């Protein structure tokens, strides 16, 4: 893939695709207040990490998203993307002292960056429809096989035990929660004129209402997952972040998540992916 964009092309470069991913992960980290998740100023339900841990992780990952976009542009096979993702995971763990900050994002945003790279190599922009189609056509078969392999991760194990859709199953289906819930929710919130913070919060809650978040299942079982989904539905039904009680309701839900030791890490990654797409639009 060329290093610089030709004036005639509107497709982003690998640098731009990767940089948007790093910035989108920062968008998610900086969103506050959030239920159970780490922000720039609080640890949510996490005793072992804070904003510094996330910033170290982001710094270690910034070259990864560019590299995987380049791999996508070069027509790489799934195995090459996977090797790149596993190496990035190792860099993340080295940077954080063994703490899992961004495993889900490495996987999800990595695949999306590879798809955007593949589109850009053909001079095309990463629209939701084009990204989904490219992901399925290039790596769909391998992703389906990947999703059938039993997981050794706590979330993946909980997802299988409880019959939920894990992170790899979401990917094999072409990220339905991202494209059918998160992206339309963010667009609708923007059209309603919400502030950036309120629009992102409503998007996070819209995702939490429907996602089989394996972190919630691992930490709180099916009861924890269902509690989080019901809390998110209730928040949105009461008017969401743009309503008069939006901030107070978010803070009350956040306190309850900490009390129950719940953290919707998969929903956070899905919000970051929607922010990535918005940044590239
Ligand atoms: C191994 C993978 C294929 C993933 O496999 P699997 O399907 O088994 O994955 P899950 O365990 O279900 O999820 C992995 C991470 O993805 C996020 N996530 C969770 N649920 C979903 C979902 N339904 N859809 C999408 N994404 C989801 C989540 O990541 C975020 O949360 C993590 C922080 O959580 P936390 O609770 O603090 O930490 P833990 O360490 O898990 O445990 P405790 O502290 O609670 O005890 C953080 O990582 C967020 O990002 C899930 O954790 C895949 O990972 C893989 O193959 N990786 C290597 C190859 C690769 O990356 N390739 C890229 C291109 S192919
Ligand atoms: N802000 C955050 N806090 C905790 N886990 C996360 N996983 C992804 N983003 C996260």
List the helices and strands and how they pair.
Elements: H1 14-30, H2 51-73, H3 78-96, H4 103-121, H5 128-148, H6 154-162, H7 167-172, H8 176-191, H9 196-210, H10 214-237, H11 246-259, H12 265-280
Helix pairs in contact: 1-2, 1-4, 1-12, 2-3, 2-4, 3-4, 4-5, 4-12, 6-10, 8-9, 8-12, 9-10, 9-12
Bound molecules: ligand LTSJ6FE6 and adenine.
Number of helices: 12
Uncertain runs: none
Structural class of the helices, strands and pairings? mainly alpha
- Rg value: 18 Å
Element order, helices and strands? HHHHHHHHHHHH
> Biggest sheet, in brief?
none
Bound molecules: ligand LTSJ6FE6, adenine
- Average pLDDT works out at 95
Total number of strands = 0
Organism: Pelomonas candidula
InterPro entries: CitG, TriPribosyl-deP-CoA_syn
Function: Involved in the formation of 2-(5''-phosphoribosyl)-3'-dephosphocoenzyme-A, the prosthetic group of the acyl-carrier protein of the malonate decarboxylase.
Catalytic activity: 3'-dephospho-CoA + ATP = 2'-(5''-triphospho-alpha-D-ribosyl)-3'-dephospho-CoA + adenine
């Amino acid at each position: 893939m060329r290093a610089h964009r030709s004036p005639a092309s509107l497709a982003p470069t690998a640098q731009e695709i990767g940089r948007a991913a790093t910035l989108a992960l920062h968008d998610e980290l900086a969103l506050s207040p959030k239920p159970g998740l780490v922000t720039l100023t609080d640890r949510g339900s996490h005793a072992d990490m804070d904003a510094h841990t996330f910033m170290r992780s982001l710094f270690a990952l910034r070259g990864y998203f560019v590299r995987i976009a380049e791999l996508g542009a070069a027509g790489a096979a799934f195995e090459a993307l996977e090797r790149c993702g596993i190496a990035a995971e190792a860099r993340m763990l080295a940077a954080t002292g063994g703490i899992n900050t961004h495993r889900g994002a490495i996987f999800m945003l990595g695949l999306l960056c590879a798809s955007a790279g593949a589109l850009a190599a053909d001079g095309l922009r990463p629209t939701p429809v084009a990204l989904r189609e490219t992901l399925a056509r290039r790596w769909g078969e391998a992703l389906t096989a990947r999703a059938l392999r039993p997981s050794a991760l706590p979330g993946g194990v909980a997802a299988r035990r409880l019959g939920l859709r894990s992170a790899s199953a979401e990917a094999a289906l072409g990220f339905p929660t991202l494209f059918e819930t998160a992206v339309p929710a963010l667009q609708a919130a923007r059209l309603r004129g919400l502030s950036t913070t309120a629009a992102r919060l409503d998007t996070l809650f819209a995702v939490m209402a429907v996602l089989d978040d394996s972190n919630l299942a691992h930490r709180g079982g099916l009861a924890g997952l269902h509690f989080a989904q019901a809390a998110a539905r209730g928040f949105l039904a009461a008017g969401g972040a743009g309503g008069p009680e939006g901030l107070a309701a978010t803070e009350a839900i956040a306190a309850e998540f900490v009390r129950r030791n719940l953290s919707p890490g998969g929903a956070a990654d899905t919000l970051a992916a929607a922010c990535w797409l918005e940044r590239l639009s």
